[in-house]
Amino acid sequence: MSAPNTISGATPKPLFDYDKHWASCFEPAPFLPMSRAEMDLLGWDACDVIIISGDAYVDHPSFGMAIIGRLLEAQGFRVGIIAQPDWHSAEPFKVLGKPVYCFGVTAGNMDSMINRYTADRKIRSDDAYSPGNAPDKRPDRASVVYSQRCREAYPDVPIILGGIEASLRRIAHYDYWQDKVRRSIITDAKADILLYGNAERAIVDVVHRLAKGDTVDQITDLRGTSFILNEARKVAKAAYFEVASNDVDNPGRVDAIINPYVMTEDLPSCDVEKSNPKNQAANPASYAGFTKEVVANPIVNAEIVNTRTVDEDTQIVSLRPSSTISKAIKHRMPARDVSVIRLPDYDQVKDDPVLYAHANRILHLETNPGNARAMVQRHGDRDVWLNAPPIPLSTEEMDYVFDLPYARIPHPAYGDARIPAYDMIKFSVNIMRGCFGGCTFCSITEHEGRIIQNRSEESILREVESIRDTTPGFTGVISDLGGPTANMYRLACKDPEIEKNCRKPSCVYPGVCDNLNTDHSHLTQLYRKARDIKGVKKILISSGLRYDLAVLNPEYVKELVTHHVGGYLKIAPEHTEGGPLSKMMKPGIGAYDRFKQLFDRFSKEAGKEQYLIPYFIAAHPGTTDQDMMHLALWLKKNGFRADQVQTFYPSPMATATAMYHSAKNPLRKVSRGSETVDIVKGERRRRLHKAFLRYHDPNNWPLLREALKSMGRADLIGNAKHQLIPTNQPLNKDSGEYSTARKKNSSVAGDSRKRSSTPSQPKKGQILTQHTGLPPRVTGAKKQSS
């Protein structure tokens, strides 16, 4: 047997050490071209790589297409962008001509289904990643549609699929919008290879290999890649040892072991025999022609018989348990770099929720690059192969990626059209990647990994200065120094060997791991240096804060509260009750209370009036109606009134989504008889859980009254301070019905466009003022007395 084609080692080639492609002789483009005219100005006759994206093209490191495009440009490749093409034909995919090496396809920074639909499966009326906030600029399941159009445009050009939509759909996955399990996205998109995660390493290696003449079928050894096993790829993977994990335990009745030396019919009481009706007729005495031999003084349970009363010729045999606990025989597993885990087939998981939960558990256990194995899952007559996760980028590589020559603004083709997603981040700086929190409703770990990848202080401060000097409209305020989480910068396991072998899904649940370095001094120092930059008036922190980590560092909390809170700080306890929190893998509400004490104390010391705004989730798996009732009581007791409610959204690949679909808990070993999770399904129950969060809204009171009565808690209905909702419904003076105030810019149809309205005519006898129809005075001065 030949040596197996193993996954690339743990010390991959740095991104900046590749030999540059010949096109590096061109200067970096002001913007990556979106038209033939721009290509002509750059002197290009063709693009080596063309990126198709569901987002508008913003040349900023917060947008995936810009990072991948600029990274490949730095490697010496000519990269073009086709952003939000019309997908109804293949012609818009030919606008830049035929790419020399490949198409790169992504749905954009968001999953296209989450981008278009709300948690209640209603179509959104806007798209923050489109110019003018316009909806309908991308199709549903954009990765699939774009890939098929690329294949139609140029059938012989390899298609590389990437982005978060592809990353989170790399195996068979539950699709909330169709309420069924769909196949791996690579089988529907018919792409040649899928890159999951941020994928800088993989995309650089793939394109360089294609440029050197390799075919895409020969690229089978890269971490962070997935592909369909064709005949050529089967040869490359033939030497792998397969570890079957495509079934779960089926618990059944376990009978007590019977002493084989005991005639059970002689026992005065035999529960094992009597409990089985079949054995009642199976007594040897009932057999035809059977004559029972009479045994004088039968010895039963010889181990408790006084040996002095037994004849010397009688040999006593005793069955005793071993005095030492025997160790279970462990099968030696093959080395991780030459073994592959066989997941349950697509045809199994689509019909069996328990096997789906099991497959999800295995996937999440194989996310640590230090010990993860490859996985394979059969789809019909084909296998989808997933190589182990990519090795995280080093600090030097992170600096290399973020220091590329981004224009930091949208492409000029959009003119003055606003792109809301860009407006949100144009004055922010991403300082790190990854998250080791492991929240089950979030998919950051499955996409970016749980090992934190940090930029250097120097690189971060250079970007702050670049924003100050080049970004239009900068007023001196940096809106964020953060990432997926605000305060995980430079936090890691104390021992690299422990980190390499760890299989825990979270470093902070159920408590902060003793092996985790939680020192926030690097982050505190970074804040101080950024504040000292000339021209920077204030730096805000708007990324999500892990307050369970922050309370371990009071100095950091003081720095944050004193200098980096703009009046309000949003944090996410998500719930107050242990049941749902255990399914979310979030800390108890006590951690929030400890953080609030520090927040209030340091705000008072700084002489500032500042507030915490907690976020909560309704209808999360594992949440009962009683849990939501207790949360509502906590909100009222603490004086919180939620204007917007976050309802659980089952996104692809999240652990909580597996709970939602299977009603099993993948955080523990899954079997037919394992823990069942309470799932909130159905419109009425989801509405009820949202209503508990908005207990103060009179529109919700009828539903809450009915629910509280059915729960036996009618004592919470009344006008006393300790009660949740009042007894009676308020009436509108005109219609006799209650109606909530509409948002300022909302419309009757529920979209986000401002309604046009004509002022009503004054009634007869009405005195006109500036508030009831009289136009304001031109000068604003007081009226002169006559």
From TrEMBL:
Q: Where does [4Fe-4S] cluster bind?
A: 435, 439, 442
Q: Which GO terms describe its molecular function?
A: 4 iron, 4 sulfur cluster binding; catalytic activity; iron ion binding
Matching Gene3D superfamilies, A to Z?
tm_1862 like domain
Q: Is the S-adenosyl-L-methionine keyword given for this protein? A: yes
Q: According to the UniProt entry, which residue ranges have a biased composition of type Polar residues? A: 757-772
UniProt lists the family membership as follows: Belongs to the UPF0313 family.
This protein's name: YgiQ family radical SAM protein
Q: Which organism is it from?
A: Aquirhabdus parva
Q: What is the lineage of its organism?
A: Bacteria, Pseudomonadati, Pseudomonadota, Gammaproteobacteria, Moraxellales
